[in-house]
Amino acid sequence: MILVTGGAGFIGANFVIGWLDGVDEAVVNVDKLTYAGNLGTLRSLHGDLSHIFVRADICDRETMDVLLAEYQPRAILHFAAESHVDRSIHGPADFVQTNMMGTFTLLEAARHYWSTLPDGEKSTFRFLHVSTDEVFGSLDAGDTPFSERSLYAPNSPYSASKASSDHLVRAWHHTYGLPTLTTHCSNNYGPFQFPEKLVPLMITRALAGDPLPVYGDGKNVRDWLYVGDHCSAIRAILSKGHPGETYNIGGWNEVTNIEVVRTLCDLLDELRPKRTGSYKDQIAWVPDRPGHDRRYAIDARKLEREIGWRPAETFASGLAKTVQWYLDHPHWVGEVASGDYRKWVETHYAKSA
Ligand code: NAD
Ligand code: DAU
Fold it and tell me: What is the pLDDT of residues 48-60, one digit of tens each?
């Protein structure tokens, strides 16, 4: 079996659901269930004996040791993290704790467990660390996209904490020989994304008739990838990646924020037209995010060359699926938009409402 951390969050849950749909191998899903983790996301797996959910904190070494000894996974896929840049600006402590200390604790537990494995299992074991393109910092318009050789230059508390975790993973491979794989992915979107992130935030606020808060001049660029493509890349890297290597994952899909928001409005105008006017009328320009990275772009050629992976969705097809999913799942949005979420929105967007 495999052990997944953070499998009640956006990407982790998509990964677990996709894995159990396609592979006959059980998953131990370890998640603390922070505000971003939701069991409702995993409802389709109720009664599936191949899915073992354990509510636990990756910072809890004793529990990580017990879980590894009990379930004997052949791989750990480490998704768990504090993941929202704006929250890291308001309160970086949780990011240092989970992303740095949590990864450290998990690496130590994995190293101890791995050292007890027989030789054959030792060489096939993998610790796959899910990281982000944000560790490479910000690009200007004419700069070449991030490659695996790009220098680290994290700018936010979130990306600095992820960069730190990457360094730990690298060191655990080089010093102790732990067979690690590290992935750097660009911005994901798709079903089950918590509505604090740009795409679901804009869809849910548009439908609620709220202002659509675009930071700064709206010209910051992100490289968007459908979450199902991120998950298929991780599966491919787990099976074909070389220990100690890092792999960039991207959609070859650079879009400005304002283009994303306008495209979402166009899709909603078509699928759920308002009585009068367009959803674009709700666009509201708000002050910029402090330290806002201008542009991310991923060179994913290594992944294509060495692993044979390319994304299946275009931005148009992926975004249309995503908008339709949110239209079809108002109940899920209602469930996750808890008191904590409402408090976050009220505090963070207070000045723009
Ligand atoms: P998310 O915030 O939606 O989910 C994170 C999950 O981790 C939640 O279920 C949460 O309960 C769990 N968690 C948090 N702290 C924990 C702890 N201490 N112990 C156990 N579980 C804990 O995040 P996401 O968007 O699904 O991102 C998953 C991973 O992918 C993260 O490592 C993130 O850095 C990385 N990533 C995300 C994106 C993106 O666009 N969302 C892109 C590239 C990389
Ligand atoms: O690049 C990968 C990263 O993408 C992941 O590592 C992070 O976990 C993930 O959250 C995401 O980070 P971003 O900061 O790029 O995503 P976010 O959805 O928060 O913002 C996307 C862009 O939209 C960014 O330029 C800021 C802008 N934005 C965001 C929000 C929430 C707005 O203009 N208004 C908003 O209200």
Answer: 999 999 999 999 9
Whether the per-residue pLDDT at 9 is higher than 50: the answer is yes
Instruction: List pLDDT tens digits, range 214-242.
Output: 999 999 999 999 999 999 999 999 999 99
The set of protein residues with a Cβ atom below 6 angstroms from ligand 1 is 5-6, 8-12, 31-34, 36-37, 57-59, 79-83, 98, 102, 130, 132, 162, 185, 187-188, 194
Alpha-carbon distances of 166 from 74, 127, 245, 346, rounded to whole Å: 21, 12, 11, 33
Backbone angles phi, psi at 29, to 5 degrees: -110, 110
What are the structural domains, with CATH classification, of the chain? 2-192+222-256+297-315+340-352 (3.40.50.720)
Q: Is the CB of 132 under 6 A from ligand 2?
A: yes
Q: Is the pLDDT of residue 353 over 50?
A: no
CB atoms within 10 A of CB 89: 17
Whether 349 sits among the annotated catalytic residues: the reply is no
Which pTM value belongs to this model? 0.98
